[in-house]
Write a structure and sequence with these properties.
With 423 residues, the chain is α/β, with parallel strands linked by helices. The chain contains twelve helices and ten strands. The chain starts with a helix and ends with a helix.
């Protein structure tokens, strides 16, 4: 097996199995500092591994929990977790105990089979992102406690056991920039975050659609609102019921650190957009039209042969979930609440969000059509390829090396803890 350093140099994301092997090697190398334990099991019986780094005999009052792999299609987090663990071993971790959930959804990671994407089309041809109720962090906002998946139960138990002063969730985006979402403000984080992004040539996403309407104490830093209602069509779930907020039970704060696979300078343009409502109407129309094409192929599948495999069932649940989101999104963009003023960065982020919704549904449906030898597979593959090329061209996409993605995430996590410790 190649080492994690080699994987990063070769532009590969480590698989959950490779992460576990690398973590075991760290524990064997540093037996007094490092512990690897199985914290739980996934629905399919895969282990959920927790790597802990703590000074022996010095159990401090401050613990940090880092969660990787909560979204199957965002594979950078595991590599960042290992990198952070090595930095903590070397530098001491600021006196805290550091704990790394190496992959919160190993079942999803097994189905998203893109360890080495060479293009957006390559990334999407083996794409998988589970529906909201099957995502470990989002499930509590969509399901009753008795229906939570075991991955969520394990994560919630870890939060209650460790009582982290800081929980960090490592996420990524296919194309765009970097940004941080916080459940509480961490004063001063914008400066080191922005400095890291500038040094590494990663754009800062100043109008992230995921954080539409949230307060922003600095470029690319967004604080979640203190409210109980769902945050619109971008977050139909109530974010306050997610595992991000569970750390608040123990007076902790959660930071969600996003980094792009492909960067675009169009998502940090602060200039006012000349016609936000017109742009949103156009984006809503395109999204509705594109999703209708995917939905038509999805409906046709009902009449064809069905393999009934678990992978196909999982992919189709995710397709249906994604397609159901789209009408509410389009309605929000064309309704009375559509903004009359917005930056070019905000509209660019929404444009990217719209494109990826249709792409994701098409990509997961294509995998089922290919597996079943469906006659529509070839035409859907051409459609997906064309959409990916248009996406990359529109946003002038440039690849961010995996090692660079990891470096920026690690720097941001350490800066968040340092600022929180000093507050």
């Amino acid at each position: 097996m190649a080492s994690p350093v080699t994987l990063l140099r070769d532009m590969r994301y480590p698989t959950p199995h490779e992460l576990a092997l690398a973590a075991r090697a760290l524990a064997d190398e540093h037996p007094r500092l490092v512990r690897l334990r199985q914290a739980g099991l996934s629905r399919a019986g895969r282990p959920l591994w927790l790597l802990s780094v703590a000074r022996p005999g010095r159990p401090g009052p401050r613990e940090v929990l880092v969660v990787a792999g909560a979204h199957a299609n965002e594979p950078v987090g595991g590599a960042t977790a290992l990198d952070l663990a090595r930095r903590v071993i070397r530098d001491g971790g600021g006196g805290a105990g550091w704990h790394f959930l190496l992959c919160a959804d190993p079942d999803g990671a097994d189905l998203h089979r893109t360890p080495r994407p060479y293009s957006l089309a390559d990334y999407h041809r083996n794409f998988y992102r589970p529906p909201g109720p099957e995502q470990p962090e989002w499930a509590p906002s969509l399901l009753t406690p008795d229906r939570l998946p075991p991955e969520t139960v394990t994560l919630a138990s870890l939060i209650d056991e460790l009582r982290p002063v800081l929980q960090v969730s490592l996420h990524g985006t296919d194309l765009g920039g970097s940004w941080v979402q916080l459940t509480r403000d961490i004063p001063g984080l914008a400066e080191p975050f922005g400095k890291s992004a500038a040094e590494l040539r990663i754009p800062v996403e100043t109008g992230a659609s995921d954080a539409a309407g949230w307060s922003s104490p600095g470029p690319g830093i967004f604080v979640m609102p203190e409210r109980d209602d769902p945050a619109g069509a971008f977050h139909p779930e109530d974010v306050r019921l997610s595992t991000w907020y569970r750390a608040h039970r123990h007076h902790g704060t959660t930071a969600i650190v996003e980094v792009p696979m492909w960067a675009s300078d169009l998502v940090d343009d602060p200039a006012p957009h000349p016609d936000p409502r017109g742009a949103l109407r156009m984006l809503a129309g395109r999204l509705t039209e594109d999703s209708a094409r995917v939905a038509g192929l999805r409906d046709a599948l009902h009449a064809g042969p069905r393999t009934g495999t678990p992978d196909a069932a999982a992919l189709l649940r995710a397709v249906d979930w994604t397609l159901r989101l789209i009408p509410a999104v389009a309605a929000e963009w064309t309704g009375r609440g559509a903004p009359a003023e917005a930056t070019a960065a905000s509209i660019g982020s929404i444009d990217a969000f719209a494109r990826r919704l249709s792409l994701r549904a098409a990509a997961m449906l294509l995998r089922v059509l290919r597996a079943e030898g469906h006659p529509s597979a070839a035409s859907l593959d051409r459609l997906l390829t064309g959409w990916c090329e248009e996406f990359a061209d529109r946003f002038q996409a440039r690849w961010v090396p995996v090692a660079t993605q990891v470096e920026h995430q690690s720097r941001t996590v350490l800066a968040a803890y340092e600022r929180l410790r000093g507050s």
